[in-house]
């Protein structure tokens, strides 16, 4: 504000100074009788010049320039549509992925179930076949065993008949022998057919009858035919042989 008042003040002082100079220059020469002049003083005052009031500035409203944003809106709409389509496509792809995964899991479960059922059927078939084979083998073995026992029995009986015939041919019955008499002898032999021992298991009550039976066995001494027998038949039937002696015949 003070800066704006300096120029008018200086101008006023300058103007008054000029007037004062003209007065001094044009003044008449003094008369011989000096007469005191009356000096008039110029009163200088500082004039304050009010700053002109600024006119109120009416704000100018700048209306935005209308632009054609149709293309921009179309681009945004297109972008939004593309984004929506992308999201829909991704959602469908994810859903399809889940469906495929579930389908694959169901297929795997069905395949595993089929494999388990197949393994179970095969195991049952193997079990049945093994049981059938075992039953068949057992039946064959039993049949063979029965056949073997029959054959062994037949073979043993044939050798027993041979031994009985030999002993009977050696037996001399005493006069005191009676049909009611019976003596049981235990005969022990070895695989060569040799008689090792003879002893009375159950006597008849007639010592002469019992001794006659013992002597008949000891007289035979050895049955060489027994060497031809399989060891199982010999061990089962002839290592320890029991013979019953009766006056009318010989019985095992």
TrEMBL record:
State the annotated membrane topology for this chain: Single-pass membrane protein
Q: Which UniProt keywords apply?
A: Membrane, Transmembrane, Transmembrane helix
User: Where is the protein localized?
Assistant: Membrane
* Transmembrane helix among keywords: yes
| Region entry Disordered, spans | 58-78
Any single GO CC term annotated in Swiss-Prot or TrEMBL for this entry: membrane
Q: Which SUPFAM superfamilies match?
A: TolA/TonB C-terminal domain (SSF74653)
Query: Which domain of life does this protein belong to?
Result: Bacteria
Q: Does the keyword Transmembrane apply?
A: yes
What is the name listed in the Swiss-Prot or TrEMBL entry for this protein? Answer: TolA protein
Highest classification ranks of the organism? Bacteria, Pseudomonadati, Pseudomonadota, Gammaproteobacteria, Cellvibrionales
């Amino acid at each position: 504000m003070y800066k704006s008042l300096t120029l008018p003040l200086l101008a006023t002082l300058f103007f008054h100074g000029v007037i004062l100079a003209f007065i001094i220059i044009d003044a008449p020469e003094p008369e011989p009788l000096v007469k005191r002049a009356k000096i008039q003083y110029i009163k200088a005052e500082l004039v304050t010049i009010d700053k002109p009031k600024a006119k109120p500035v009416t704000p100018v409203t700048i209306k935005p320039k209308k632009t054609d944003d149709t293309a921009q809106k179309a681009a945004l709409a297109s972008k939004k549509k593309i984004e929506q389509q992308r999201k829909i496509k991704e959602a469908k792809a994810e859903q399809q992925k889940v469906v495929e995964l579930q389908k694959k899991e169901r297929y795997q479960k069905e395949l595993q179930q089929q494999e388990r059922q197949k393994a179970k059927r095969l195991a049952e078939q193997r079990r049945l076949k093994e049981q059938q084979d075992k039953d068949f083998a057992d039946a064959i073995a039993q049949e063979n065993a029965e056949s073997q026992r029959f054959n062994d029995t037949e073979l043993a009986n044939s050798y027993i008949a041979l031994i009985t015939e030999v002993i009977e041919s050696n037996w001399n019955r005493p006069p005191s022998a009676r049909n009611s008499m019976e003596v049981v002898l235990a005969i022990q032999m070895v695989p060569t057919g040799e008689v090792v021992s003879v002893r009375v298991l159950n006597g008849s009550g007639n010592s002469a009858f019992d001794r006659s039976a013992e002597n008949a066995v000891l007289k035979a001494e050895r049955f060489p035919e027994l060497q031809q027998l399989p060891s199982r038949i010999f061990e089962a039937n002839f290592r320890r042989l029991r013979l019953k002696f009766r006056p009318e015949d010989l019985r095992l």
